[in-house]
Write a structure and sequence with these properties.
The complex is a heterodimer of chains A (354) and B (572). Chain A is built from 8 helices and 21 strands. With 354 residues, chain A is an alpha+beta fold. The mean pLDDT of chain A is 88. Classes of the chains: A alpha+beta (354), B mainly alpha (572).
Chain lengths: 354, 572
Amino acid sequence: MSRVEVNQLVKTFGSVNAIDGVSFVVPEGEIATMLGPSGCGKTTTLRCIAGLETATAGEIVIGVRTVFADGRDRVPVEARNLGMVFQSYAIWPHMTIADNVAYGLRVRRRSRAEVEERVRSALALVRLANYADRYPGQLSGGQMQRVVLARAIAYDPEILLLDEPLANLDTHLRVEMRQELKRIQRETGTTMIAVTHDQSEALALSDQILVMGAGRVLQRGAPEDIFRRPQTAEVAHFLGATNELAARRVDGRLVVDGLGLLPDGVGDIGGAASARVLFRPSDVILRPADAGGGWPGEVVLEQYLGPDVHYLVRFAGGEVTVDVPSHSGMFAEGTAVSLHVAPDSLFVYPEGAS
Amino acid sequence: MTAGADTAAAGRDVRPTPRRVSGLWIAFVATAVVLFVLTIYPMIWLVIGSLRVPGGFGMGNFVDLGEKFAFAKVLANSWIYAFGSTGLAVTIGVSLAVLVARTDMPFKRVARLSAVLAFVSPPWLTAMAYVYVASPNAGLVNRVFHDLFGVKPFDIQSMGGMIFVTALFLYAFVFLTVEAALASVDGSFEEAARVSGARPLTVVRTVTLPLVTPAIVSAAAFSVIISWGLFAAPAILGMPARIYVFGTQLYLFLSAFPPRLEMAAAMGVLFVATAMLLAAVAWVFRRRRRDRSFAVVAGKGVKAASMPLGRWRLVAAGFALGVTMLSVVGPFLVVLWMSLNVKWFGSIGLANLSLANFRYVILEYFAFWQVAGNTLKIAAMDVTMVLLTATAVSYFVRRTTLPGRFVLQGAALYTVLVPSVAFLTAVMWAWIGSPIGLWGSLVLIAMTQAARSLPIATRNIGDGFGQIDRPLEEAAAVCGAGRGRIAATVTLPLLRPVLLSVFALDFLSALRDLNTPLFLGGGSAGSMTLSVLIFQLWSETRMGEAAALTIVLLGLTLAVFVPVSRAFGRRT
């Protein structure tokens, strides 16, 4: 169990900065998640921590050892004492499950008895005790996921790295394994760093989330903090605030073209003349047009999703999407409605920060 | 443990880096030295030899080639022979590949199996069989026609005959290349064309063939280069009719007294240069296709649904079975028949059947066991060298960033562009007067065969490395395994099927190789192989004995091949 510290990490491919000055600290025994769209540098950062890729500049410290500094790997991957869960699992097809799990222990020349004991307890931890002698080809996706996990923790690595650990599972299994992952982390107390592009995975799993974009950390914080108080429009957008409106300052108040005034007390935009306003489809309440108040609009498209109904609503200045629980009544396509968004659900960011 | 007290917890897993790197370098340099000796050194001598004239160096040999040795005629023959064989082989091979990979033709497995057999069967076998059947005077079919109609219509000992027999072996190479390419092309391209309303033949013409054109072009280019390196068929079919091509003319130069080594070198240089030019043209062609964003490997590798042939199914089946008959089954049966016959070109009857030929070659020929032992020893040495070198080269290219690794790969691959007999001339120049007593030894024969086999082996093993998902090895590194341990516990076990198929292919081609031991053996029993003995018996017109020994060789091949292919089992 160790803390991990990454300082001003830079990784250049040709003239492109895949990682552009990333810094963060993961305290001992916590789960941190790097969240971001593909190409944001999160996987590259993870691979640099693992030592599978050599960064260009910066510093990586695992526990008490500086494993990378001055553009050079000081400790090679095999000596970093890590566990890693690969997106493609990477379970060796020519070895049994037990041999897969035992690999790291045998590399460390542990006694035969200890290997046996630890393989048994690792498989028990992931609830695969009866599968030791099978070959990987006979396992399902969820079981493979558990094997990788068992293999990665069998030798008590200092930290556990997870590269899109749940991406290859179907929705149902993903929720189950997410819970399993957190349970195992709580039981073993291993420091974990995960990479994902799925916000619910990051929110559910993490003690700390690092939202990344274009090779930088855009924001870091606890899940609720990130979700409730995104600091930039990119972060807000990536965390589900997909509706965006343009607002102008008129007489000291913010006005959205075609909709009207924003409620008092939303975001301070300093001296900027215009702002971007973002909100989540699920934070909108729809009411019939004659209910009064709110922004006027018209339902263009309705999609029934079961628990929710998904609407596309047109207003004078554009379109927004709205998710409302289906038990609260339906609006037919063509219905005139009014949109209500609570002030603290509107994320407002000054534009052209000059 | 010098790292200090604060790392004690993780202490036993902390290792410094330098040692493994130097080990890697030692292996790298060793591989480079081996490759230099095997493939580069002889070619340097070929160039030197071609320029050596009495009293110094000059272009005299090239002038002599033109003036004294009717080189223009040999050149013309070689081109007609190579391009004729290639044209016929491409026609047969590509049509068969499309039929097997894309239609509901019956007997697909037969067609595939016979292509493999045709590709690995001894090069002299087909030629011997066709001489027996269709030689101008005594050939079996000609005699039958003579008795019935008073004419002898077939003459296998002609340029046409050489092309025909050679194409029956070369088509297999084209077929295997193009069929593999078709198998890797995503079937949805063609299904899209069919859904758009194109009829099967139109689909083949407008989608299928254009998609595999790069494969066809390189198969054709290599067929030409292979043809230039062939010796057995031109010798058995062409020399009696005084038709000389590159391989047989070289043989004349080398077996003349005194040997015209410098002439052979000059001619070798010319053909190597031509072959390289041809390969360059094919490469540029492929390159241009790729530049037009010609992405063949896109898609998920879905197998194309087979196109129904309807009434043409039987015609296609007839074609496939016909090729099988002409290239494999027929020749094998004829040679078997020859081996059991003691009376030559006599009546077709069972009365003359006997095992006398077998008794002679196995029990009475004084050096049979020695010769058979030589054959196996050479093959074993060859395979060992090829597997070690090709695996090492592929490892350096695919798994390290050492400078110079691509030079190594180039050295391992380039001999595919050198016609076989030209390379043999080069080896001769390199070692014949050398103080290291390799000349005439089994080791030199094995080394030369290894150099010839390296390109295919390196390519296959390299592809094998490419198919190993990188995370499988990265996972081992993360678990704490070093470079050597990863190779031993993950990479090599996963490569096993590829290594075994390379082993099998290489062992087979070593057993049936005639060119290398014939040109480099020096003729004594100490370095003779079964193939050379067969050729010698044939030259002495002891055809039954030659056929019997061929059957013995095939038996030996099967005895080695069947257990090995069992061992790596069925790959489905």
